[in-house]
Every structure is written in C-alpha cells, then in structure tokens.
Amino acid sequence: MQAMLSDYHGSGYDRGHMTPSGDEPDTSSQNQSFLLSNIVPQTAALNRGAWEGVESAVRGWADQEGEVFVVTGPGYNPDEAQQTLGPGHIPIPAITWKAIYDPVGPGTGAYVCLNTAKPVCKITSVAMLTQLVHIDPFPALPEHLKAQIASMPPIRQSPYALSHRAGNEKLQKNWKSVAVQKALKALLHSLRGNR
Known about the structure:
The protein is of the alpha+beta class. It has two domains: about 5-160, Extracellular Endonuclease, subunit A (Extracellular Endonuclease, Chain A); about 165-195. The chain has eight helices and eight strands, in the order H-E-H-E-H-E-E-E-E-E-E-H-H-H-H-H. It has helices at about 5-10, 25-30, 45-65, 125-135, 145, 160-165, 170-175, 180-195, and strands at about 15, 40-45, 70-75, 85, 90, 95-100, 105-115, 120-125.
C-alpha cells in the first residue's frame, strides 16, 4: 500500500502531519515532513483547529522544558468497518494522538483527538492511550509513570480557527483601528511608567 496525492484530491480530508513541519530544525527536514509517510487523513476541522492547538501546546512545552520526547500516531476503531480514502484505499483514522514524556518533570501524558467534523481532544494517561490504540509509545518507562498524567499544557487555540471564527473579521478590523491602537499605546505607556 502506498499513499499518493491523488488519494487526497477531492476527498474532503486534509493531509494531517504527524510530525509538524514547524518542529523541524531546518528547511530540508521541513520539506521531508510533507512526505506522505508522515501524513494521515484528517478532517479539516481537526487538522486546522484542535490538532494545531495540540501541536502548539506541545511545542510550547518543549520550549519551556528544553526537551520532551513526543510520539505521534493514528488510531483505528477495530469494531467498525475501516473507512478508506482514494484509489489507494488509505485508511482513515478514528483518532490521532500525541504521547509526551517529560524527563525533567518527570512525567507522561497524551492528547487524544477524535478525527471527526466536530473534533474533541482530551488529555489522558499513556497507560490509557496504550489500551486504546494497542501501541506503547514508551515501552522502556516504568508502568507507574505511564499510569499518571503529568501537568500538561492545555490545548491552545489554533490561529487558523481564531481567524476563521464567525465575527472575527469585524473584531480584527476594530483592533486595527487608529483609536484602539492609540488606546493600546497609552495603556502600555502607563504600565511602563508604573514600574
């Protein structure tokens, strides 16, 4: 089985990155992140919304801690007939997930997102994720560490979702107005003066 761009064409599904290009250290690695071996079918609502929020939360966590280990993957529902995409019959995952191990914490946890038109993402333990997808992302870690949920950052709002929310055009226009900009400058000036 091999995915092709033609499998996604007109399918209504986005090409959802497992490793985001924004996490790659250089241009060559960023380009490689667009290979279809790093991509699964995701609904537009998940890929451009909550999933991007999960990626941002994990990126922020890594920036704060200096190092975290991340394992990402799709999950399929064995109790339902497998939905596929395109002529290559690419399996459509029921969920996508990110498991994180923070060696500084130390702690583990996972984000699990439904791959639906109205996606929901939840934070859970790595032990629960392992039961759900039958993959242990961190087999070398002790079970007690995988059973607990680390203090994980909340899922951030996706910049794409925020910019496409109904009514945001008017809000963004208002924030760019001269009067609002003057008020913001005055506020910043007064805050600096109070130091």
